[in-house]
């Protein structure tokens, strides 16, 4: 997906909410990366494992880059953690260069709401139409919006409802067997080819790409 954005050779990229820095190495292949993370432990871990510039900060009101503007801003599974998601997007818009890109992923479909979301301090899961409108209202032009993790959706839906009606507490930090984990990763990764040619009709997550409206 990033390869198709036609970013400048020395693009300036900002990841808002980088966590432990799992995406920074990939993003650094496309330009100079700046990042922001509120959690002290996660931020220090990220600093030890990357050359990206990482500062403390939070959305919507504590962004530590007053004089910077970026070619690309990414929020990977961040927006659902923010009570003021609209204000966060409006704040980020001021940090984008003219026609700069905004790249978002979020959990999808309120019907999938579960103990997992509560444990991870989510405020919401999104419908595609609602996410599109939210981003549009914040001053962006949406160029792509699609569900993803579509192929595994039936399995996830069934698991969520089984856990919902079960008396047992589900530990979603437990990894599946290595062979199953590898299979799931392969299925998930295969969807990138589908996203290159079509918008997926349903899925566990949403991906959205937008540009700053002039």
TrEMBL record:
Which GO molecular function, any one, fits this protein according to its record? methyltransferase activity
What does the record give as EC number? 2.1.1.-
The record ties this protein, via InterPro entries, to: SAM-dependent_MTases_sf (IPR029063)
Q: Which GO terms describe its biological process?
A: methylation
Q: Which residues cross the membrane?
A: 138-162, 193-210
- The superkingdom of the source organism is Bacteria
Keyword vocabulary terms for this entry: Membrane, Methyltransferase, Transferase, Transmembrane, Transmembrane helix
Query: Is Iron-sulfur one of the keywords UniProt gives this record?
Result: no
What residue range is the signal peptide? none
Q: What is this protein called?
A: Class I SAM-dependent methyltransferase
Which species is this record about? Candidatus Marithioploca araucensis
């Amino acid at each position: 997906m990033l390869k198709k954005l036609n970013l400048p050779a020395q693009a300036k990229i900002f990841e808002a909410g980088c966590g432990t820095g799992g995406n920074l190495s990939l993003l650094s292949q496309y330009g100079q990366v700046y990042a922001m993370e509120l959690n002290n432990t996660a931020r220090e871990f990220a600093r030890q494992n990357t050359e990206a510039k990482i500062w403390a900060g939070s959305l919507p009101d504590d962004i530590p880059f007053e004089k910077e503007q970026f070619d690309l801003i990414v929020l990977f599974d961040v927006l659902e953690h923010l009570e003021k998601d609209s204000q966060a997007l409006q704040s980020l818009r001021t940090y984008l260069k003219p026609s700069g890109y905004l790249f978002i992923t979020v959990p999808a479909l309120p019907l999938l709401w579960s103990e997992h979301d509560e444990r991870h301090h989510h405020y919401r899961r999104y419908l595609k139409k609602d996410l599109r409108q939210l981003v549009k209202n914040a001053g962006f032009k949406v160029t792509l919006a699609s569900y993803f993790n579509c192929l595994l959706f039936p399995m996830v839906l069934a698991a969520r409802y089984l856990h919902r009606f079960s008396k047992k507490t589900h530990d979603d930090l437990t990894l599946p067997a290595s062979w199953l984990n590898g299979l799931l990763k392969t299925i998930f990764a295969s969807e990138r080819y589908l996203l290159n040619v079509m918008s997926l009709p349903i899925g566990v997550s949403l991906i959205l790409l937008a540009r700053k409206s002039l």
